[in-house]
């Protein structure tokens, strides 16, 4: 009774990517090196701009954090001096000493978990393969911190 059959076109992505080099560049598994994708000038621009933006943001956030911590400490000192709050300095000293002991204990082992070691190795490999991009990022970061 009038059943209409829809015909669907099947897109074979493997065949499609063979005929489209731009598709391979965008979606192919990357070797982790941007040197193969971009020329030196592009890498310098990308690294420099992203580094500058990151440095600028770090500078602003750093100033805000320093102001908040310093202002909070200043207000606590005023409140302690005027008698609004009472600080148990013996308890503070005991907690600080406990934290020091834990830091000494953890740093004496000096062993990284396998997951962290794998991530660190991946970062090191990426940095080695993208020396130009990394250098430009570092320079831009320092410029961003200075401005």
UniProtKB/TrEMBL annotation:
Superkingdom of source: Eukaryota
The family line of this record is: Belongs to the FUN14 family.
Q: Which GO terms describe its biological process?
A: autophagy of mitochondrion
- Please describe what this protein does: Binds directly and specifically 1,2-Diacyl-sn-glycero-3-phospho-(1'-myo-inositol-3',4',5'-bisphosphate) (PIP3) leading to the recruitment of PIP3 to mitochondria and may play a role in the regulation of the platelet activation via AKT/GSK3B/cGMP signaling pathways. May act as transcription factor that regulates SREBP1 (isoform SREBP-1C) expression in order to modulate triglyceride (TG) homeostasis in hepatocytes.
Predominant cellular place of this UniProt entry's protein: mitochondrion
Q: How does it sit in the membrane?
A: Multi-pass membrane protein
Q: InterPro entries recorded for this chain?
A: FUN14
State the protein's name: FUN14 domain-containing protein 2
Its subcellular locations are: Mitochondrion outer membrane; Nucleus
Gene Ontology cellular component terms for the protein in this record: mitochondrial outer membrane; nucleus
Q: Which UniProt keywords apply?
A: Membrane, Mitochondrion, Mitochondrion outer membrane, Nucleus, Phosphoprotein, Transcription, Transcription regulation, Transmembrane, Transmembrane helix
């Amino acid at each position: 009774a009038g059943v209409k059959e829809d015909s669907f076109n099947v897109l074979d992505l493997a065949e499609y990517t063979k005929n489209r080099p731009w598709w391979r560049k965008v979606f192919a598994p990357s070797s982790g090196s941007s040197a193969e994708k971009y020329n030196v000038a592009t890498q310098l621009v990308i690294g420099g701009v992203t580094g500058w933006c990151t440095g600028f943001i770090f500078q602003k956030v750093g100033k805000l954090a320093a102001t908040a911590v310093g202002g909070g400490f200043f207000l606590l000192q005023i409140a302690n001096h005027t008698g609004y709050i009472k600080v148990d300095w013996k308890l503070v000293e005991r907690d600080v000493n406990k934290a020091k002991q834990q830091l000494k204990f953890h740093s004496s082992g000096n062993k990284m978990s396998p997951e962290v070691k794998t991530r660190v190795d991946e970062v090191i490999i990426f940095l080695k393969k993208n020396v130009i991009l990394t250098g430009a990022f570092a320079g831009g970061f320092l410029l961003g911190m200075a401005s």
